[in-house]
Amino acid sequence: MVLFISRKDVESILSMRETIEAVEKAFREHGLGTVSMPLRPVIRVDRQKGMVAFMPAYLEGMESLGIKVVSVYADNPSKYNLPTIQGIVLLNDPKTGTVVAIMDGAFLTAMRTGAASGVATKYLASKNAKVVGVIGTGVQGRTQVAGVCEVRAIEKVKAYDVIPDRCSTFCKQVSADLKVDAVPVSSPELAVKDSDIVVTASTSKTPVLNGDWLDKGTHVNAIGSHTPDSRELDATAIKRAKVVVDSRDAALKEAGDLMIPISQGIISPDHIYAELGEIITGRKIGRESEDDITLFKSQGLAIQDVSAASKVYEIAVKKGLGKTLEL
C-alpha cells in the first residue's frame, strides 16, 4: 500500500519552519558524510527548452530514502499555462526498499529551495540584516523571502522583475503573508543597493547582478541558474564573495555562475570556500566579519527533497491525510 499525497495536502502540511529544520538536518548529515547521493542525471529536451532531472538520496541518520523526478520547462507558462517547474517524489522504506509514499514535488521543491537559503542565511548573513533585495519574483522568489524571514527579523523587501505586474502581485502577497514592507523597484541595481541580503531567483542565462553593486557585509542567495551555460552573477560578484555551495561536486559540474569564471581563469575551483554542511558542522567558519560579502550558490540537492518529503509523510500519517493506493 502506498500513500498518495496531493499538492493540496503538501501545502497544508509543510510550513517553512519545519522545512528549514528538515533541510538543516540534511545538510548536517551531508557535512558528516552519512549521505548517499549520486550526482543527478539530467535529460535535456532542447527543442522544448526543457530538462528533466532524477534526484535520489539516502540519509542514514534521518532514515530517509527516496527520489525526486523534476522537470524545468521555461516556456510552460506562456505556451501551455503550466508551471515552469513540475515534479513528483517517491519515498522508500529504507528497511525494505518498499515505496511508501508518492507526493507532488513542485510545491515541495519551492519550499526546500527557500529553506536551503534560510539555512544559509542563518549561518552566513549579518545578525542585524533587515532589508532583502529580490531579483525574480516567481514562486521561488516567494519561498526565498519566506525562508530568509524565518531566520532574520526582516523589515523591508525590495523586488524587481522583468514583468512589472508579476512584481506588483509578488509584493502584495509578500506584504500580506509575511507582514513586511515589500515594494517594487525599477531595476536590479535598486534591488541590490542598500540591501543586507540579496536573492537572485531569475531564469536569466546572463548576469542580472553586477558585483560592483554589492555593499560590504551583504549576503547573497543565488538560486536561479542551475546549468553550466547560465549564470545570474557576474565575475566581479563571484570574485568579491566568500563562496559557499551546497555541493562542490555539483557546483563544479552544473553551476555556470562558478564554471564560467573558472573557465575564463578569473577564479580557480579553490575559490569555493566551503560546503554549507561544513559550516553547519563547525568544520569551517561562516561569517567572520561584518564586512564579509558572503554568497550561497545553490544547485539544489536530493537530500533537501528527501528530507522535506519525509517530514511531509510523517505529518500526513499522523493527521490521516492523503489517499492510500494499492499498486
In short:
With 327 residues, the chain is of the alpha/beta class.
Give the amount of beta strand, in percent.
Answer: 15-25%
Major sheet characteristics: 8 strands, mixed
Uncertain ranges:
none
* CA gyration radius, whole angstroms: 19 Å
Q: How helical, in percent, are the residues?
A: 25-40%
By CATH, the topology of the largest domain is Rossmann fold
- CATH architecture term of the largest domain: 3-Layer(aba) Sandwich
Tally of alpha and pi helices: 12
Order of helices and strands: EHHEEEEHEEHEHEHEHEEHEHHEHEHE
Mean pLDDT: 96
Total strands: the figure is 16
Number of domains: 2
- Full CATH superfamily name of the largest domain: NAD(P)-binding Rossmann-like Domain
Global geometry: globular
Which class best fits the helix and strand makeup?
alpha/beta
